[in-house]
Amino acid sequence: xxxxxxxxQDKVKTAFDALAARGAEAVRAFQLxxxxxxxxxxxxxxxxTPLAATPDATFxxxxxxxxxxxxxxxxxxxxxxxxxxxxxxxxxMMWMSVVRGPQQTENVGRLRGLGTMILKxxxxxxxxxxxxxxxxxxxxxxxxxxxxxxxxxIERFPDVAALFDMKGTDEASEAFRKAIETQLLGVEPxxxxxxxxxxxxxxxxxxxxxxxxxMERLDAQLQARHARLQxxxxxxxxxxxxxxxxxxxxxxxxxxxxx
Length: 259
Hints:
This protein has helices spanning 2-29, 33-48, 55-80, 88-121, 126-155, 158-161, 166-183, 193-258. By secondary structure, the chain is mainly α. The longest helix has 66 residues, at 193-258. The radius of gyration is 26 Å and the shape is globular. Residues 235-239 have low confidence and may be disordered.
């Protein structure tokens, strides 16, 4: 409804303003001015016209805006060259927390939004059914990608895996998946929108928290690697200076012997 939309819009505006303030340097560094300008244009359009002619058109407009934002995130990931990370765990943590994790959560978010709209209106048009089926089919693909990255980046280290609630995340996702099958994939939509929404919110909250924790782990690992590289460079520099000094000493010693 309109009050909920206005509240959500205020949150997005606040987040976008913070992004614009903090991300200006990164946008320039990665030469993403054009992509950020497109995101800003889409954002301003929604600020001015948050409601379209129909609920479906409104939903599509907001979905399109989120897609532009996710495209920018993917460009940042590509520009950072973290995808070329030679270490398996951090490469998969990047893939999960920056690319596939957000894609998975957004896909579930689309199912939540459209599914709730269908259950409230009890109207399951063919176009709505097509979208639900498309996003539901995408779920398994994205889930497999995330699960694989989790296994390679987190689960291989039992002491680290103990800090993550992957089991709870999987259970919440499966509960929402079953709700989609039961309430939306039949001949007619069935059940209460409120119960559907509760399951959807839990699945999304669990996925978002898992992604956040993986990103924190990735940041910590990259910081630790940077520190190791700094120490290695300092050691290499010290060794190089030692060899230079040793070469000078030997040259001087040889000179004195010859004299």
